[in-house]
Specification:
about 500 residues, 7-stranded mixed sheet
Length: about 500
């Protein structure tokens, strides 16, 4: 049994190590490309017809600002069509109807489209609208986005290249400083939208359309097989199918699309579950085709770890749960000391990930001192939070690889922009603690025992790891309690 535990523990550490090496390569590509970047000569007169699709499901708090933002696009009205793909079942329907009528009266080509059924969820809505879209290009925004008036002027010139199938922009966060929860989300997403997306683009690797804040060439969607609802990340799935067909993706780090981050833990976990499970489902669907394709080996390696990135959470929960038994095995078996030396791979992985997030932080902050200050505070907390949500995300990964299907659960937003705004007492909350929440609280106590074990066995090698785990699970459990109390105000 001891050998089996060490083998499983070692394999999980090895996967995280190789994943961190791929991230290190992306850091290298990002910095190299940033230093050698040459501005493209863009044709600002290239203004083709565009359909803007706004998939919406029960978003009464944010839908009006979305419609207002898109209706104010600086683009020739004759070339712009706006589809509000409304699958709502609540007051959102009437809010949309009123704003659509308002903007129609001002000459904006905007329509509220309602399907007979919600088949296929977001993917189904996008495909439904695509069938009657007039534009050669399709811009997509989720309900919580507030694109700037010049969005299309900034993105469309890149399609002058006939090989470009997608232009993706960087997400910005209107409520980043609302709470620790939003600051940590922004910390993680900023790294994805600076280092990862830019690095993949620079290396000509597979990248992904992020579901919103981007534009598709309609012919690219059709050529790749259209929107399909057999995964929870229809955006990642179509991205891979399109690039397998030879289409190029263009990522614009300098063009931002403002949006709202989840302000409470239930919405964050719902979003994380969908992203994590959907990525694993997309890997199950597309990875074999990628690995047997004619793409270069390094492209396949990056695609492998890109599609399997959600598996990192499964590895984290494995090494976390086994770390305390390993501590006792190490104490009882000094002859295995050499084996435990290889656990230093995990420390190297942390250093690499630290560099990855430091480079991202430096890109966001002004000045060295601000970079160091924010990184020093946020990186350990981000690590702890990522560990704390690993049990939740691991269940999503296991379900995906087992082929267990679940419905698309959208992430509700509450028009949270400043500290004075409140999410508590609003609709779309259930106020229930679950068995998973209790398990996360128990995990916090389990790793407190790991801290105790370090002093009992006089072995402090895993002490920082157990501190991060206990803090991370404690934070997640705390926010779950806060959510349950806050949402019950609406139910009372």
């Amino acid at each position: 049994m001891e050998i089996l535990i060490l083998i499983i523990y070692g394999l999980a550490l090895l996967f995280i190590f190789f994943y961190s090496m791929v991230q290190l390569h992306l850091v290298y590509l990002y910095l190299k490309n940033k230093n050698q970047k040459v501005e493209e000569a863009l044709d600002a007169t290239f203004l083709p017809s565009v359909t803007v699709q706004l998939p919406v499901y029960n978003e009464m708090y944010v839908v009006e600002r979305l419609l207002d933002s898109v209706a104010e696009f600086d683009y020739p009205p004759a070339l712009l069509q706006i589809q509000v793909l409304d699958d709502s079942t609540d007051e959102t329907i009437h809010l949309i109807a009123a704003r659509v009528a308002h903007w129609k009266s001002k000459g904006v080509n905007i329509t509220q489209l309602r399907r007979p059924t919600r088949d296929g969820y977001k993917a189904g809505a996008l495909q439904y609208g695509l069938e009657i879209a007039h534009g050669e290009y399709v811009a997509i925004f989720d309900a919580d986005f507030m694109p700037r008036p010049d969005f299309l002027r900034q993105t469309m010139p890149h399609f002058k290249n006939p090989k470009v199938g997608v232009v993706q922009t960087k997400w910005e966060h209107v409520n980043e400083n609302y709470s620790m929860l939003t600051r940590l989300q922004a910390f993680g997403l900023n790294a994805h939208f600076s280092v990862e997306q830019s690095g993949r683009n620079a290396g000509n690797f597979f990248i992904n359309f992020n579901g919103t804040g981007g534009v598709w060439r309609k012919a690219c969607i059709t050529d790749a097989g259209g929107w399909q609802a057999d995964t929870l990340t229809e955006d990642l799935d179509l991205s891979y199918r399109a690039q397998m067909r030879g289409w190029k993706f263009k990522y614009l780090e300098h063009v931002g699309s403002p949006a709202e981050l989840p302000a409470e833990i239930k919405s964050l976990k719902s979003q994380q579950f969908r992203w994590t499970k959907g990525a694993a489902e997309t890997a199950r669907k597309n990875l074999a085709s990628v690995l047997t394709s004619s793409f270069p080996v390094r492209t396949k390696v990056h695609a492998l770890f890109h599609l399997l990135n959600s598996t990192v959470f499964l590895c984290i929960i494995i090494i976390s749960l086994l770390s305390i038994p390993v501590l006792y095995i190490k104490s009882a078996s000094p002859e295995l000391e050499l084996i435990f030396e290889y656990a230093s791979l995990f420390l190297l992985s942390l250093l690499v990930l630290g560099l990855y997030y430091f480079v991202s932080t430096k890109q966001q902050e002004k000045g060295t001192w601000a970079t160091i200050k924010h990184f020093t505070v946020r990186f350990p907390l981000f690590l702890a939070m990522s560990m704390g949500i690993s049990l939740h995300n691991s269940l999503a990964v296991v379900q995906a690889y087992a082929g267990y299907k679940t419905p698309f659960i959208r992430t509700p937003k509450f028009n949270i922009r400043s500290a004075k705004d409140k999410w508590s007492g609003k609709q779309y909350q259930d106020g229930q603690l679950t068995l998973l929440n209790i398990a996360e609280g128990a995990m916090c106590l389990y790793f407190v025992f790991g801290i105790y074990s370090a002093f009992k066995l006089n072995d402090f090698g895993l002490l920082p790891f157990h501190i991060l785990l206990s803090v991370g699970f404690g934070i997640v459990f705390y926010y779950s309690i806060v959510y349950a109390i806050g949402s019950k105000r609406n139910l009372a």
